[in-house]
Each structure stands twice: as C-alpha cells, then as structure tokens.
Amino acid sequence: MIGFVSPDSFSFVLSITLLAGLVVGGLASLYGPLLGAAFVMYVPSVAQDISDAAPGVVFGLLIIAVMFVAPTGLAGLAGRARGAAARRLTRTTPAADRTPESEPPSAPPAPADPAPVDAEPVGAPPRTEKE
Questions:
Q1: Domain coordinates in residue numbering, the chain
Q2: DSSP class of residue 72?
Q3: Which of 53, 55, 22, 56 has the alpha carbon at shortest distance from 39?
Q4: pLDDT single digits (tens) 39-90
Q5: Tens digits of residue pLDDT in 29-40
Q6: Contact 75, 29 (CB under 8 A)
Q7: What are phi and psi of 29, to 5 degrees?
Q8: Residues with Cβ < 8 Å from 80, sequence gap 6 or more?
Q9: Cα–Cα distances in Å, from 81 out to 22, 35, 70?
Q10: Do 54 and 44 form a contact (C-beta atoms < 8 A)?
C-alpha cells in the first residue's frame, strides 16, 4: 500500500497536540518526547473520566500544572530527581558520628612570620641615625 501525506492530513489541533507533547516531555533527552507522547495519548482519556463536560479544560490545566512543576519537561524533572537522590546518597556523615580515624589528616601549622628585616637584635644598643 502506497500512501500520500499532504498538509491537509494534519489538522491545526493535531499540530498543537504534538507540540504540547514535546513541551510537556522536554527536548533535552531522548526520553522527553517519549514521555510527552505518553502524556498526549493517555491524559485526554483520564481527563474525559474526570469531567465529561470539559475534558479539554482538564487537559489544559494538567499541561499548565506540569509546566509549573517541571519547566524543563518531565524528562528534566526525572533528571533533577535522579541528581537529588545521588547527592543525598553521597552526603557525608554528620560531625557527631565521625571518628578520629575517619577524619582526613590535617595540614601542618603554618610557620610563624619571621621578624622584620629592620628589627634590632635582642640586647643590642639602639641605633642612631647618621646625618
């Protein structure tokens, strides 16, 4: 079967729906458009179950809510959650739980400042200025 695709095959509503799927999913990764496609496929049926009178309004409110919570898309939200979990797992133990063996070796103390060059030796007679 050979088919033909023309601009008339895609309505304005379908174009906006595909664009909404890209925005909701996020464009930063390969998983973003996949998540956006799942959103566009399944959320309208959930919106229909929530409100028979205005499923478009519920769908629009869900898109706005996703954009408010995840401005980088659902894929960006997943990446932020993964990064937060990694930071939480690699956090060091509290100071009260540390033992001296777990402390890194401390640096040796810095040497004291040497005496200024024009200082007089201890016990020497005071210098007089010559004119």
A1: 11-86
A2: T
A3: 22
A4: 999 988 888 888 888 888 888 898 899 889 888 888 888 888 888 888 888 8
A5: 888 899 999 999
A6: yes
A7: -140, 175
A8: 72
A9: 20, 16, 11
A10: no
